[in-house]
Each structure stands twice: as structure tokens, then as C-alpha cells.
Amino acid sequence: MNKVIPLKAHQDAAVAVFRDISLTIQQRLDSWDFAAGRTIIDHLTKFLRKYRNELGDTPFGLELTQINDPSKPELTPRAITRANTNNASLISLDCELRILKISPLNCSMNLSESILSAASTGTVIAHYENKSLVRFFADCLTARCINLDDPVYPPGRIVRMRYVANQYRLAIRDHYRHRVKYWQETDHWADRTRRRLYSRLGSCSKTEDIFHRSLARWLELHLDGDVKSKPRDTTGDEPDIQITELGGRIFLVEIKWLGRNEKTIHDLKWLKGAMNQFGKYLSKQPTVTSATIVAYDARSKDKFEALNHVEEVEDGCRLIEECAGARVPARGDCMVFYLESTTASQS
Amino acid sequence: MAESRFTDRRGKDVLFALAVSSSSKQQLGRLALQKFIYLFDVLALACREVGGSKAFRPWRNGPYDFAIQNTVDALAFRGFVSISNLSFRRTKNTECNYTLTEAGKTVVAQFKKDKAFYNDFSLFEEIALEINRRGWKNIKNIVYSEPTYRFARSNFQGNELALNSQDANLSWQLLNDLRKSFEVTRDKPMSRRTLVQVFFALLDEYATTPDSKFEEQS
């Protein structure tokens, strides 16, 4: 019998289900019912769209549960603003958007992603960021975002830079150009003139985290795949970022940095060690399709240009296969990005 | 001989379909019964690794398996199924509703004691739950959105729908991709409940596409 393949419209429908927020939540939380969760998220989206002009751009968090308690009061925009008047609070809701309880978050009024992400341990939290965006956290990880301007489309201006999952390298390069190269978002320089990176910044306790968080968020928004960032409580072998394509192909990203931060120095020997470690990890993971080491280079321009590279894919980005005698594994590659420390006009 | 074997196996499917639908306070007619069992056959390959029947054909009023009608007639004759609201439209079109009699319910209770049969019964229950969410009157649209049947219709194929084959069961292909992707970052497999819900969500998504609207018009 000849194998037939589904119609394009059905394949698109499968991709839509794969990207469904409720399914991503179910993937992370067994207790979450996928179908009932779709209805809850649908109701919440309609509620937020209806009242977003009243709610404005002030962020708040809502915990979503699948309990049904008709005795509780309904969620209203007034209840949200009242609960967040003095301190940021988390409002727990039942499946019909009734208020179960209000618990304070210990963060004064600066409600950040990391606080809500941490609060989502074992549960689901919707983070209303502004009139146009609501982000869902499930068990400490971002599940997905909804564009409140039009939920059919992904949030914001991201559409023009959207890639399928296996083109994640292009998305990494976009991220470098738009967020890292001139420290546009990452704000990684502790001392630009001496080319010294921060050893910690805000809630990022390591230099890697500064790049990792920004890149993970970028990939979540720009790839048609499931992007999972390193769970906060695991150590050791866990890759920094795991991207899963519809159909199950897996891609890994490992983030490193070179140069000097406020405490230590990472030179090529350190990158060599990272490559060897990555090779061992890949040999234990036969199901990984490909893996990429992304190294942000804070060393001097001379040292970056002296790298033995196979290709300079764009200004400030080099692909290397070998480093101080260590080779990139067969299923892997290594992209080194030069961190500019002067603006285009200064240079 | 072959027909008798199909009829025997369909006995279990018909009894389970009628038992589950009556728990949803739903009486099934001839075509709704065909469609309900069709959905079971589609999902059987994904849910229990053993495919359903390949006796369904894309008929004028949806997928149709003659063995099901023969079985339900035989079960009615033997007193396991009762027929109500019987009416005739023209000479060949018969309309009626089927429900289980007390004897039929006893047989179902006996069947459910067998583990494999109980698994099938609970799959019927999961499917009924999802049809309930969407309304039983929409079962026709649900089945018409199903990839294997939709493909056969759009390609004017009147051959049997080989729902037991991984190559021909298009729903299985899509669900398998979704399941593999879902399970990558988990140590547990996707539960059957989620799998059935995902299948119905897929049909819902398909129903919003221009492709499905075109099909409705044609």
C-alpha cells in the first residue's frame, strides 16, 4: 500500500495543536487537563481583551486552577486593581474565573518574570505584562504568550523574524544582532572600556545567565517549536536550551562566554573544556539531532579575529570547528559572537 | 464466514457505543452509530496499538461499515437492543434510534470484566466525553473533519479506509508526530485522555481553516 500523507490543512492544524498553550502546560504539569485548560485559557483571553483598556499596562499575575467553586466571587477588573493596590498579589482563579484567594507576592510593585516564574512551581500563572501581551508560566517555565491585540497571531513584531525549529541558528544570529551585539537588551558590560562583563546582574547570578535568559526568551518567541530552558533546580548535564520540533527532532543550545568578568577569566582552554564536555554529553544523547555551542566573546578584537574559523557568517559571528586541539562533535557546531564595546559611531 | 467474523467483533463495538452514549443521555440513530464507531476505529491504532477495522468505506452520508448495521439488527432481533422512533423517508431511508435493553446492559457489564474489553469501553467513554463537549448533533462535522475520511473524500476514493494501517490512517500519523514531540521533554508518555483530547483539538483547529469551509460548501 502506498503511504499517503495528510492534507496541508491538517498538518497546519497539528502544528497549531502542538503550539497550544494548554498542551504545553499539560506537558509540564500532569494534573492539568488539556481540553478543560483550553476553555479556561480561552475565557481568560476573552476577559483580558474585553477589559484591557481598563487594566492598562500595569502588570499582574493570575494563578489558573481547574477547581470549580460557584460560591466564589467573579473576577473583575476592579478586583484585580484592588488586589494590587499596595503590593503585587497573585489572584488564584477557578475554572470559571472566580476568585479563590489572593496571596501577596514579596516583591513590592516590581512584578518581574522571574518572580512569577518562581511562583508557578507546580501550578499555572498567567502574567499580564501589558495591554498587548499575556505570558503563561507552568512549573517555572514559560509555556507560551498570547497577543491580546489578536490572539490568532504570535505577539508583537516577532512574526517577521519567525523561523521553523530547525533553523534555530538563524534565530540565534538575529538575537545577537538585535539584543546582544551592542548590549541593546543584555546590558552585559560592567566596564565597557576595559571589556569586563558583569559576573552577576539583577537576578542573574552568573554571566552565562545574562545571555541565557535573553536568548531563551527570544527563541521561545521566534521559533515554531517547543523551547525549554534549563530548569532552575537542575545542574550538571542539563543543556541550557532544548528545542523540540513537531515530530520530535531535538536541538540543543549551550551558552558560554569568553573573556573577563568581574571575578574570573575564560580563555580558549575553557572553551576547549566546554567542547569536550559537550562531546561527551552528545555521545550519551543519541536522539539529539544537532547541538550548538554559542560563545559570546568579550576578549579583544585581535583575539577574536585570530580564531581559527571555518566561516565568518556575518560581521561578528564566526563558526569554528576546532579550539585548542578540541574538535566540535559531529552533530554539533560552535558559533562565536564578538561582543562590541563601542557603538558604531565611536568605532 | 468473513462477514460473520466482522459481525461478531462489531457486536462488542455496537454494545459499547450504545452503552456509553446512553450515559451521555444520547440516543444514537443509524448514521450517528456508524460515526461514533468510526471515531473509535480511527483512534484504536493510536490508543491500543492494535488498529480498528478496515471495513469502513467513504459513503454518501459519511464512513459506513455494513457489518455495523447487520450487527445492530441482529442484536435487536435477539433482544439486546431496542428500536424506537422508527420512521421511513422514501422507500430505502429508515430512521430510528437505538438503545440498550436490560439484557444488553447485562452483556456490557459482563464484557467490561475483561481487561482488554474494558480498555475499549473506556476509549469509547473518552470519545463520548469529547463529543459531548461539542454536542452530539455535530458528530457529522467532527467525522467529516477527520483526516483519513477527508482525504478519501477529496480524492474521490471509494476504497475501504484502512484504519488499521499506519500508512493509511492519517489521524494516527498526525497524532504520532504530536505524541513524539510531546514526550520528548517528559519521562512519562502522553496519557490516553490527553491523546483523545488532542485528536479532537486537531479536528477543531482544522474546522477553522478555509479548507474545511470549502469542503462544507462543495
Helix content of chain B: 55-70%
Query: What would you call the quaternary organization?
Result: heterodimer
Domains counted in the coordinates of chain B: how many? 1
Strand content of chain B: 5-15%
Q: What layout of secondary structure does this protein have?
A:
The complex is a heterodimer of chains A (347) and B (218).
Chain A: H1 8-18, H2 21-28, H3 34-55, E1 60-64, H4 77-83, E2 89-93, E3 99-104, H5 113-119, E4 124-130, E5 133-138, E6 141-147, E7 163-164, H6 168-180, E8 189-191, E9 196-197, H7 207-222, E10 223-224, E11 226-229, E12 241-244, E13 250-261, E14 265-266, H8 268-284, E15 288-297, H9 301-305, E16 309-314, E17 317-320, E18 322-323, E19 326-327, E20 332-338
Parallel strand pairs in A: 1-2, 7-10, 9-13, 13-15, 15-20
Antiparallel strand pairs in A: 1-4, 2-3, 4-5, 5-6, 8-9, 11-12, 12-13, 13-14, 16-17, 17-20, 18-19
Helix pairs in contact in A: 2-3, 6-7
Chain B: H1 2-23, E1 28-29, H2 30-48, E2 57-59, E3 62-64, H3 66-77, E4 81-89, E5 93-100, H4 102-111, H5 115-134, H6 139-145, H7 147-154, H8 170-183, H9 192-207, H10 210-217
Antiparallel strand pairs in B: 1-5, 2-3, 4-5
Helix pairs in contact in B: 1-3, 1-4, 1-5, 2-5, 2-8, 5-9
Description:
The complex is a heterodimer of chains A (347) and B (218). In chain A, 31% of the residues lie in helices and 28% in strands. Chain A is built from 9 helices and 20 strands. Chain A has helices at 8-18, 21-28, 34-55, 77-83, 113-119, 168-180, 207-222, 268-284, 301-305; strands at residues 60-64, 89-93, 99-104, 124-130, 133-138, 141-147, 163-164, 189-191, 196-197, 223-224, 226-229, 241-244, 250-261, 265-266, 288-297, 309-314, 317-320, 322-323, 326-327, 332-338. In chain A, the strands form 4 sheets. In chain A, strands 8, 9, 11, 12, 13, 14, 15, 16, 17 and 20 form a 10-stranded mixed sheet that branches. In chain A, strands 3-2-1-4-5-6 form a 6-stranded mixed sheet, with helices on both faces. Chain A has a two-stranded parallel ribbon with strand order 7-10. Chain A is globular, with a radius of gyration of 22 Å. Residues 231-235 of chain A have low confidence and may be disordered. Chain B is 62% helix and 11% strand. Chain B has helices at residues 2-23, 30-48, 66-77, 102-111, 115-134, 139-145, 147-154, 170-183, 192-207, 210-217, and strands at residues 28-29, 57-59, 62-64, 81-89, 93-100. Chain B has a 3-stranded antiparallel sheet. In chain B, strand 4 (81-89) and strand 5 form a beta hairpin. In chain B, helix 2 packs across helix 5 (115-134). Chain B is globular, with a radius of gyration of 17 Å. Chain B starts with a helix and ends with a helix.
